[in-house]
Amino acid sequence: MRTWRKLSKLAAVTTLAGGLAFTGTPAAVADGGSTEKSAALACGGNVFLDGIRALAISENGRDEVYIEADGVKIWPAGGSYVSMTAGQRVEVDKCVRPQAALRLMEVDDLDPNDVIGRVILQGDVTRDYEFCCGDGGRYRIGAVR
Ligand SMILES: [Ca+2]
Ligand SMILES: [Ca+2]
Questions:
Q1: Which domain holds residue 58?
Q2: Which residues make up the environment of ion ligand 1, defined by Cβ < 5 Å?
């Protein structure tokens, strides 16, 4: 019963996002397409991390960022970091547990790496979270249930 309700909700959201170009939708919905909703369903009881956007970067030009969940690096899979500029959005596409503690790290060669911010997911909701404001960086990530 619960699964059916969730499917119905996601289908409604997808229809809305696909059919109307209005402002004010949550970024997780506005930034993602129906493929993200399908991927979220593939996460089962977990939360799907959709994409991350750099609202403000902590360094001149580019930040080198990666994401940890519960102390373990989960993104990017094929490298030690992703290089991001202000305003850029990059797909994350990872499943994490509903109450995972996320940390956004910024790699520095000579200093210890910077912590941009931490968030603890609020389980059973689709919403955006912000990593803020370590070293002046601010990033938004969409979590889809
Ligand atoms: Ca730094
Ligand atoms: Ca750096």
A1: 2-144
A2: 106, 108, 114
- Quote the Cα angle for 117-124-52, to 5°: 35
CATH number of the domain that residue 47 is part of = 2.60.40
Task: Give the amino acid at 16.
Answer: L
CA 109 to chain centre: 25
Q: What is the pLDDT along the chain (145 residues), one digit of tens a residue?
A: 444 444 444 444 333 333 333 333 444 444 455 677 777 778 988 999 999 999 999 999 999 999 999 999 999 999 999 999 999 999 999 999 999 999 999 999 988 999 999 999 998 799 999 999 999 999 999 999 9
pTM: 0.74
Question: How many Å lie between the centroid of ligand 1 and the Cα of residue 113?
Answer: 6
Question: φ, ψ for residue 40 (rounded to 5)?
Answer: -60, -40
Domain count, the chain: 1
